[in-house]
Amino acid sequence: MMANGVVTKKIKMIAVDDEESILKLYSRILKTETLVLWNDAAEQTYEHEQIDLDLELCKDGHTALKLIEENGQETYAIIFIDVHLSFGESGIDLAEKVRAADKDIEIVLITGDDQIELTDIRRRIPPGNKLFYLLKPFNPQEICQFVTSLSAQWQLEKQLKKMHNNLENRVAQRTEELMCATHKLMDEVETRTRVEESLRQSLDNIQIIIKGTIQVIAKLLAMKDPYTAGHQRRVSELAREIASQMELEAYDLEAINMAGLIHDIGKISIPSEILSKPGRLSKLEFDLIKTHPHIGYSILKEIEFPWPIAEIVYQHHEYIDGSGYPQGLRGEQITLLSRILTVADVVEAIASDRPYRAALGIEQSIQHIEEMRGVYYDPEVVDTCRYLFQEKNFEFKTKVL
User: Fold this and answer.
1) Residue 138 placed within a domain
2) What is the count of structural domains for the chain?
3) Which domain range does residue 39 map to?
4) For 150-161, how does the pLDDT look when each residue is reduced to its tens digit (9 = 90+)?
5) 45 CB contacts (<8 Å, ≥6 apart)?
6) pLDDT per residue over 214-248, tens digit each?
7) What would the DSSP string read from start to end of 124-189?
8) Are residues 382 and 269 in the same domain?
9) CB 146 within 8 A of CB 132
10) pTM score above 0.70
11) Are 61 and 92 a contacting pair, CB within 8 Å?
12) What is the CATH classification number for the domain harbouring 324?
C-alpha cells in the first residue's frame, strides 16, 4: 500500500506477559506511535516505509500459541515473551513451542540481567535459531528499535523464502518439462537422423543439379561466342581468389564462382557480329552491349539458386562513383561480390585479346585499376587484386585465347 510516497506495510505481533502494566506499556508504545523505516533502496526515490502495527496482547502462553496455530495467511512477524510467566510454563518453554509452531517468527525474550538465566536461554534455544532477548527494564526506544529492525528482517526473509519456493517450483516444473521433452526427443532422434541424412543427400543432389545448370548456361553462350566463354571462366577464377584473400565465407566464395561463370549470359541476346566485331563499336552497338547485365538478370532471376547470382550479374558493370550501368548504383549500393566481380572482369578483359585489339597484359590491367581506385573500383578489392598478382604470383589456370 502506498500513499504520498509512503509505503505502508502491515506487521502482526504478539506480546506475552502476565503483568497487566507491561502489556499496557506494549500497547502504549506499539499502538499509539507510528514507526517509520527508511531503507537504502527507497532513499533514492525519497520514499520510506511506514509500519502498520497489529498487536495482540496475551497474559499466558496458551493463548499466544493458539493465535499462532490458528493464524491464516498473514503470519506473525514478532513475539515478545517474558521469561518469568506466572501461569503455566516458563517463557523459555513457550519459546520452544512457538519455534516448533512457526519457524519464521522472530522471538524476543524479555529477561532480567541474570547471567544464569541468559546461559539457560542460550543452552535451550541457541541464538542461531532466530532468538533474541531484551534486558529489563526496557524503554520505548528499545522496543521500537527491535520492531523496526526485526520486522524489516522478517519481511526480507519472508520475501526470500517466497522467491526460493517460487524458484523451486519453477525448477521442478521446468525439470519435468525438460524430462518429457528429452524422452520425446530421444524417441525422435533416429527418425530425425534419417530425415537429416535424406535432406543432406537431397541438398547435395540439388547442388550438383544447380552447378550442372550453370555449366549448361555457360556452354550455351560458348556456342555463340567462344571468347566470352573463356573470359567468364578466367573472371570466375580471379574473382574467387580475390574473395578468398579477403577472407569471405565459403558461401560467398561459391556464389562469386558460380556468378563469374555466367556473368555475361545476357550477351546471348546480342548479335554475334557485334560481339566479334573487330573494329570500334558505334554508339548504338555499344548501347546494345550495355543491355546484357539486365538481360542476364532477367534470365537468372527465374532460377532458384541458393546464392544471389542474378543480383551479382545485374551489378557487375556498376562503378562506385555511380557512372556505371545499367542502374547507376554507387558505393555500398553495389554488393561486395559484384564489386569484386567488376574488378576481376576488367582485369581479365584488359589482359586478354579482344576482337578489336590485342592483349595489353597484366601490368596494364593493374595500372588501370589503380588509376581508377576509389573512382570506379572498390579500394580494398583493387589492393587485394594487385597483391595477388604482384605478391602471390597469381596466374589464370584457364588458357587465355
Assistant:
1) yes
2) 2
3) 2-160
4) 777 777 777 777
5) 5
6) 666 666 666 666 677 688 889 999 999 999 999 99
7) HS-GGGTEEEEESSP-HHHHHHHHHHHHHHHHHHHHHHHHHHHHHHHHHHHHHHHHHHHHHHHHHH
8) yes
9) yes
10) no
11) no
12) 1.10.3210.10
